[in-house]
Each structure stands twice: as C-alpha cells, then as structure tokens.
Design brief:
Pfam families: DUF7587
Strand order of the largest sheet: 3-7-11
Oligomer: single chain
Structural class: alpha+beta
Strand content: 25-35%
Largest sheet: 3 strands, antiparallel
Radius of gyration: 16 Å
Order of helices and strands: EEEEEHEHEEHEEE
Protein name: DUF7587 domain-containing protein
Mean pLDDT: 75
Number of domains: 1
Distance between the termini: 17 Å
Organism: Neocucurbitaria cava
InterPro entries: DUF7587 (IPR056009)
CATH topology: Heat-Labile Enterotoxin, Chain A
Length: 200
Amino acid sequence: MTGTSNHLDLLPMTNSIQALYSFLPTHHNTLSPSPSPPTAIPSLVYRVHRVNAQTRYAFSTGFSAKNQTTILNYTSALSRFGLAHLHQQTNISSPLISVYDNLAHAENVAKHWAKEKGEDTYVVTIDTQHLARGPVFRAADLLKDEMAAGGKKEVDGDEWLHWGEYLVMYRIPAQAIRDQTPVARGANQDWRAVGVIGGA
C-alpha cells in the first residue's frame, strides 16, 4: 500500500454490525487503554498467532487469511463467517484475522492458546495506519447480535477471549508489522517473553 489514507471502506451493514472505517489519533498508551469508539480502531493492535493457525504468517510477508475469496457484503454472510471464526469452527474457511486492542490482554490470550493447543504462540504488534484497504469489524458486535437472535446464551467461560477483539478481512501487509514477541513455547514449557524478533 503506497498511499497514506487511513480510511477503510464501509460495507452496507445493518443492525449493530458495522464496518469500522476511521482511526484514533496516532498516540497509543498500552498501559491504560480505553475502549475504542464504535467507528474507530487504535493506532496499534496485537495479533495472537499460533504456528498452526488457519491464517498464514511470516514477518516478511504479513498475515493472510485462509479464505481470500468470500465477499461479506451482507449481514447474514458476515454473521455466518464471523461467528464461525470466533467460535473456532474449522470446517469453515475464515476470511477474517483476529487482532486485539490491548497488549496485556493479547499476551494472556496467547498463553491460553499455547496451553490449550500446545503450540508456540506469538504476539505481533500491528500499525493500523498501514492496513490494506478493507473493512474491520468488532467481535463484540457479532456476539451481541448472536445473543439478540437467540443464539448462544449460556456463559461458557470463553467470553474474555474476545475482549477488545477486532476482525480484519483477508490480509495484514508486512509494512504494518512492527514487531513479534514469542510469548509461550507450547504447553509443556514455561511462559516466557524471549525478546522481540524483527523489530521495526
């Protein structure tokens, strides 16, 4: 992406699911984050990446969702693919990439998935000003609509995994990657931050 525009395309969505299309100012305090307004995302977000995740990743190329062809241009498609993504339904190829608005929370999620999946897990810092053009959605909106529609009602203890979570479509380019930090080395090893790899 060679331009400097920081606006994202807005999809024609209804209900409470809307694409986010503007950004907050460039400053970002990871020590005391505040909730993002519904039409903005922070200047930095954090991807929790497992080595066997559907989303492909390399520091030199960025992130690429497994599904690059599905167009989510109506609410039912967004709900179907978005909820399948959030509920880890691997039978549906996801066009979405999860990121979080808080570093400490992303690290806790990374530790959780490393323990659950037994995989090396990283937290990757992403500069949202360099995202490819396209919509970004809030996980909270999808989950709220699912509850309102009479879907998942029982508390199953995993709601915290979606706090401050955003869903980016298709890809996150390499120029948006600021650094990556190993957080956990599989289920049988100690949690450890072993330093930043490929820092900008």
